[in-house]
Structures are given as C-alpha cells and as structure tokens.
Design a protein that fits this description.
This protein has 341 residues and is α/β, with parallel strands linked by helices. It has helices at residues 2-22, 28-31, 97-100, 110-120, 137-146, 162-171, 192-197, 199-207, 219-246, 267-285, 294-301, 306-309, 319-336, and strands at 43-44, 56-57, 68-69, 89-95, 125-131, 155-160, 183-184, 250-255, 290-292. The chain has 13 helices and 9 strands. The strands form 3 sheets. The chain has a 5-stranded parallel β-sheet with strand order 5-4-6-8-9, with helices on both faces. It has a two-stranded antiparallel ribbon with strand order 1-7.
Amino acid sequence: MRQVLIVVVICLFAMEILLRLSGAFKTASEKTGRGYMSSYGEVHTTWYNTHKPNDTLIPPATDFQYQFSTNSIGIRDRDYDYNNTDSVYRILVTGNSYVEGVGAPYDSTWPRLIEKDLHSRNMKVEVIDAGIAGNDIMYDYVLYRDKLSKYHPNLVIATMNNSDYVYYTFRGGMDRFHEDGMVHYLAIPWYDFFYHYSHLFRALLAVSQLPIEGAYLSKNGYKTIASQATISFAGVLDKYSKLAAKNDAKFALVIFPKASEIDLNDFLSRNSRNNFEQLSRLLAKDNIPNFNIIGSMKNKLGRKEKVDFTYAHDGHYKPFGYSVMAQLTVDSLIRSGIIKP
C-alpha cells in the first residue's frame, strides 16, 4: 500500500511538472510575465481604475513592446482643454484594454483610427481615448460621472465585450464601490489556493469543462450569473446615458468581440451572443442606441489569417484589427444618424 501511494505521489508530481513546462494552463497574467493574479478578493483604495497620471509605461507583453504616456487623469491620451469649443466635435470613448489600444502604438489605436476616418470625411472632430486596461462598464460609468464629463464631449461612446460578463463573476456590480472610497471585489473562494499553485488542479477544472478561467462555476451557474449581470448592465447604462443627456451629449453603446472570439463558437462565445442580444432588447426599451459589431467583425476578420489581426500570446488586436473595429463603428454611427458628416 505504501509503495502504491509513493508511486501515485511521484506520478502526480511528474504530471504537475509536465503541465507547468507545457504552459497549457497558464493564466493570462502568467503568460505576460506578471505571475499568478487571482481575479477575486482585490481591494482598491480608489473608485477609479486608471493609470498613474503623467506617467510613461511599457505594456507587459511578450509579442510587442512600445511605451505610452498618460495624461493628467491617467488615461492614454493627451490633455484636452475642458472648455469644448463649438468648432470641434468632441467624442469620448470609454472601455477596456481594446479601447486603450493594447497591441498598437498611439496612432493606431481604435479611437485614433475613428478620428482619422472622420477626418477623411471632412469632419472637425477630436476623439478622447479613455480606455483603461481591465475596466468594465461599471468602472467606465463612475469614471465618466466623476472625472471624464468635465471634458464636455458632444458624443459619449461606451463599449463592452465578453470581458464585462467575466469580470462581473469576480467583481460583482455597483456594490463593489464602497462609501469610504474603496473598491472590494467578491471574496476569494477556498479553492483559489490550489488553483494558484497547482496546474494539475487547473487541468482537472478544464476537464470538468468549467467555462471561466479561475472560477469554480458550472455552465448553468455561469448562465445564472450572466443573466443577473445583463440586468445590472442595463441599469448602469441607463444611468450612463441619462447623465450624458443631462450634460448635453449624445450616447451610444458599441459591443465588439475580443480577438480570441473571431474564430470561436465555444460556450462563452455563444453565451456572450445571447447575453448581448438580451441586453440590446432591454436598452431598446429605453431608447438607448447600441450597435453590436461582433458578427460583422467575425465576417471580415474570419477570412484572414489570425497572424494578420492578433498576437499569438497577448491576444489583443494588431492595428489592422483595430482598423476594422473603427470602420464598422463609424459606419454604424453614421447610418444611425448619431454622427452626421
């Protein structure tokens, strides 16, 4: 019996080593050299998930390297005059790392490419890139409410992708923002210790077909939480759009896919499509303009080799991928009449 136990322990240890060497179950943060970072239990001392103001940064990625600067409130853009003049149509774009433009130099980010497209149509426009890596619609709304509205944009473009639903499972909704000015995510579950230190444990969860990396949720469990998230998102977007209207700005939501979803039809992608369809129906009842460009992006980029529009390890878009996003976004806004060249 003792010998059997020793053999089992040796085999498990050998499997752990092999899985670590293969890198098959590395988390996103581990792939970019930042080590294991649990998505649960985070505590932040501020409501605003921005970069350090007036800083110069180099993204922690293995596929590309460039540096970028932040402005006085910690977003990847220059400083703008708070007094918006009537001679320039000002657009503010909020969102996550895809809006910030991870994977692209400053002049090839999605907001910059939107700006270039509109310039080519003889529009005097400036586009403020308020995307922050790791943000979701909750953070975006609070940042606009408390800091970004002072730029007095004529149009606010909020954005979402499947990350918002994944983040919700770890962060919760607006209840994360505490009155003391701090942010608390959902509590760390018991199994996170094993997930942190054992790639074999991660493999067992994957074999069990749990849909989200780092979350002990069955598919039905995720569907339940995602349904709750949709209602929560609709409520936040209603507040967001009403606040924009109060500030004399138009408002629109753009829903786009992550680069990894272009050639996938897995559970998360299908569930994401259903979630966003439901969200769009809820927003339509409140007359909130929203444009889902997931299908259009899949059609355009699905004909390309992945190497043309995304990176092998980092997973964000290359400039060409962002250019497709910009084109589809501008086309949607013009067709709807929200933007009039």
